[in-house]
Amino acid sequence: MLFLGTTIDGLQMGLCFAVIALGVYISYSILDFPDLSVDGTFPLGGVCCTIFMLKTGMPPIIATLLSFIAGALAGTITGILHVKFKISKLLSGIIVMTGLLSVNLALTKVLTGTGYTTTIFSYNSVGIEGLFGGKLAGLLGGGGKDLMIIIILLVIVLATKFIIDIFKKTKMGYMLGATGGNERLVTYLGKDSGMYKILGIAIANGFVAVGGALYSQLYMSYDNTSGSGKVVLALASVIIGMSVFANIRIIKNTTAVIFGAIIYSLCLNYLVLVDTQGIYTKLLNAVLFALILIFNDKISHLIKGKTYSKKAVKEDA
Amino acid sequence: MLELVGIDKVFNAGTVNETTIFDNFSMSVKTGAFISIVGSNGSGKTTLLNIISGTIPINAGKIILDGDDITKLPEYKRARKIGRVFQDPAMGTVPQMTIIENLSLAANKGKKYGFEFAVDKKKTEYFKEMLLTLGLGLEDKTEIPVGLLSGGQRQALSLLMSTMTPIDLLLLDEHTAALDPKTAETIMELTDKIVREKKLTAVMVTHNLRYAVEYGNRLVMMHEGKAIIDKCDEEKAKLTVDDLLSTFNAISIECGN
User: Fold this and answer.
1) Chain B residues with CB inside 8 Å of A189's CB?
2) Which backbone phi and psi does B5 adopt, to 5 degrees?
3) pTM score
């Protein structure tokens, strides 16, 4: 039963993180921009969504969608710092991530109204009902709540995936890909590649914030420190997914990333079974990621396909 | 018509490494001209192309393209009227996108890149016909990422992509230098064909003196930011590789090489 419970938790967490991973897929994989602001935009999404729901009584879905805008705004700042002020990609991300720590704290303060609290800002079940509480999740009765959560998360994740897939096929999506693959070409097509970078980073962080919003609703709490390690988590998901399925052409990159997030979250959850006190969580997190990077090639060769991989091409070039 | 008027270009101004590339350099390129520019390393050939395209700013002077002063325009805005093929075959295409995807991107140059689907079935047929004329067998590889093609195939594609939409000027930046001799020949012939068919104005920088002599209708040899040879039409037709070589040698001796 413990194992089953862990698997369910892992699945829920994985689906929640899949949304973040899809966002990071846009910045890291399509735009070739390792964006560290994710650590800040994840909790930003969570706190904004919580404020919208608790302070304005907004329906959770609207609150979740609005958190996309909050994340996108933060992402825009990262993009502008890099494009307009020529600050390196990593540093632009770090600057925004650091700044957001205070922004998130200030927003938390608005929520509590009691002043300075750094640690867990936890509203219990009475506080955040979100997408997962209330009537919808109750449809399958008490025991079906976990399943219902998975179904709702799955719908959201698939919707995100299809939006990204369709966007990738549009002219604008192509330009985003071209910006990541060969910026000079975008310039020679008469467009400002910087604008596409800003746009891409904004969209990516929008999805990350939605992930944060879902996370705070899933666990019915908001924690200012919840952002730490999310970059690693999302990058790991993207890299696992894309290397496991690199040689299978029918599986789209977006699908691969979703599986990557689920695989990674399950691994993390099973590790918690071993490390019951949770002391080594982050260390295990890091070691797992390192192992994945080390065995990256071997994983993709385990699953052989007939055709080439698009990702391999990008790395060669 | 492209006019460069009184161009000054200084690198690292105000430092010990200060290098003056151009001092009051002027040149004009008639519409329909196909200029080959040769010269030793550091003579200012590539800098000249970068100045025209807006990749690097100038210290003084004016650049006028078809009557419009483009001196202050950023590179991407100038690029709407300028096509460019680089020395590195990877520079002209997006490696992880397929041939069709690359061509679709290029065919849309000058228009809006909005939310419409980028690949159009009707256009795909047209692209395949176009690839057929290259004679490189690319029409059967349309779904293959460009990164997997050879340098020559990529360069042919780059050439096609940069001349697909109407442009006022084509810049060729040693575009055959990274290719093997036979492929270089093919690309050069293709370049000549496209320039003739589309009646393009082209500026080609090359280290291959034979190409400079054989192709185009004007030849310019650069040295220390000046055009030391500048021959058009009949005069250019009389030039031989040996003439160029002897001038080259004279310069080298002068420089103490």
Assistant:
1) 79, 105-106, 108-109, 113
2) -120, 120
3) 0.86
